[in-house]
């Protein structure tokens, strides 16, 4: 239960709905008890009237007595009907308050978790799978909602109805109360166990279903590889095996489910039989009237559902507590990438990196080792190096996705940790190595970083990224949908849309992380020349495997295993005849980039 205390703040927030719910529960339960008493009175009246009615028939007063008798029964019938209608109305109101409250809380919780997720650093996303993140915001929140809605509703009902009914039953006849209620604890315990079994098996089904859908999703998204490697039959066999497992688990669940209702009915039946038997004996001994038996049978039926729900509610609360523990685990993770002073300044673009070292916290890999360089505002730095030499890590640190293990990064003479993170990132244009475009129109993808999208700016960015002509050649131009619901761009087109997205922000500092690998050298040159023009008075960092991308830069660093091994401009590095010159020779001779 303790993890669930965390959501008490929401119960407090929606206390109005909760209190109304409690009030309606009390009122609706009053309308449950009164009809049972009316039934007792009516039956006792019928029994007594019969004994009076017979002598009157002989005396000729039969018709009048019969009329009065029927009228009385009719009035009772109407009263019971009105009570049932009123009860229905209040049950409706209970759902309108408590279940609606649970939906409000569910909405608030999802927003809270999503907002928290977004604030967490990149390292959090490296450690936890997307599936896990999604499960906690959807499935786990739904389970907690079951606690806030149905569990609280039935729990409250139980808490209010039980004392009311039992105290009333005892006031009528304590001994019969004991007999009638004897099977109910057994009922509750059995439901608890059966329910746990159902939950356990449902969970297994859920797991097998999710692995089945992951399998199907992978098979279809990788359909090209699957067909090219002629693995269709193998894939179909694996699917059949996974389906078989799912079917087997579903049948297991059906067996337990089949036990559920007969179990309830059997135990309620036993209660009724005991009530009739014990009550009958008491009627024979003249201790109670016939009506009491009918009244007690009604009470047993009234108590059945709350008692059944006790087992159900207990297992809902247990599951909700487990889910809330998982949610709390993420909510308790703090973002360690925070700004020291929240400085909001318009950047000039002067960058100074000194003695920078970085070890990835999750893998312990030392990606950078004592790296120092300086870029004056408006200049271009080319970073070149083999695979895994630490190039992207420099980009990650400049964007403050991570903080350095040692050394510091100064922008305009101030440590980047002093700047407000959003102000810093808003002034940086980043083109990542793995292009990611949203399933949206091309225009919206390019305008992604803009608070106020402007078509002129979007078109200009597309032209500068050399993708304008490609876009307007599509029938719907900039309104072309991308992704699963739309067209698929070629690798080079994707990269250029991604560059346009970064340019549209008009950033002060631009970081291109190996984003020209899928375009030919001619397009690469066209983009770089256009970039040089638009990045005048702005700072750019061009990370690449290809010398052709880096050679236009004012300054070039060559990285190897996290260390700078050469530094200078194209001419000085060529004159040096070291690694850079060697790479240049190989790449220009073969026309191909050299993978490290
Ligand atoms: N998020 C991460 N968590 C742990 N280790 C990482 C992470 N990202 C990169 N690394 C490791 O850090 C080292 C440097 O990686 P980095 O991505 O900076 O190389 P790179 O020079 O950009 O390579 P490439 O040109 O192939 O992109 C590699 O050994 C890599 O395995």
CATH homolog superfamily of the domain at 345-427 and 508-596? P-loop containing nucleotide triphosphate hydrolases
Give the strand line-up of the largest sheet: 6-7-8-3-9-10
Q: Note poorly predicted spans.
A: 592-596
User: What CATH architecture of the domain at 345-427 and 508-596 would you give?
Assistant: 3-Layer(aba) Sandwich
Instruction: Output the number of helix runs.
Output: 20
Structural class label:
alpha/beta
* Overall form: elongated
Bound small molecules, which ones?
Answer: adenosine-5'-triphosphate
Secondary-structure element order, N to C = HHHHHHHHHHEEEHEEHEHHHHEHEHEEHH
Total strand segments: 10
Radius of gyration equals 37 Å
Kindly provide the name of the CATH class of the domain at 345-427 and 508-596. Alpha Beta
Characterize the biggest β-sheet.
Answer: 6 strands, mixed
Q: Strand fraction band? A: 5-15%
Structure description:
With 596 residues, the protein is an alpha/beta fold. Among the domains are: 345-427 and 508-596, P-loop containing nucleotide triphosphate hydrolases (Rossmann fold); 433-506, 3-Layer(aba) Sandwich (Rossmann fold). The protein is built from 20 helices and ten strands. It has helices at 8-13, 15-58, 62-119, 122-127, 130-172, 174-181, 184-221, 223-228, 232-284, 290-331, 391-398, 421-426, 442-446, 455-464, 468-473, 491-504, 521-534, 547-550, 570-576, 579-590, and strands spanning 351-359, 366-375, 380-385, 406-411, 414-415, 428-431, 509-513, 539-544, 555-560, 563-568. Strands 6-7-8-3-9-10 form a six-stranded mixed sheet, with helices on both faces. A hairpin with a 2-residue loop joins strand 4 and strand 5. Helix 2 (15-58) packs antiparallel against helix 3 (62-119) and helix 5 (130-172) packs antiparallel against helix 10 (290-331). The protein is elongated and about 135 Å long. Residues 592-596 have low confidence and may be disordered. The chain binds adenosine-5'-triphosphate. Residues 126, 360, 362-363, 365, 367, 385, 387-393, 433, 514 line the site of adenosine-5'-triphosphate.
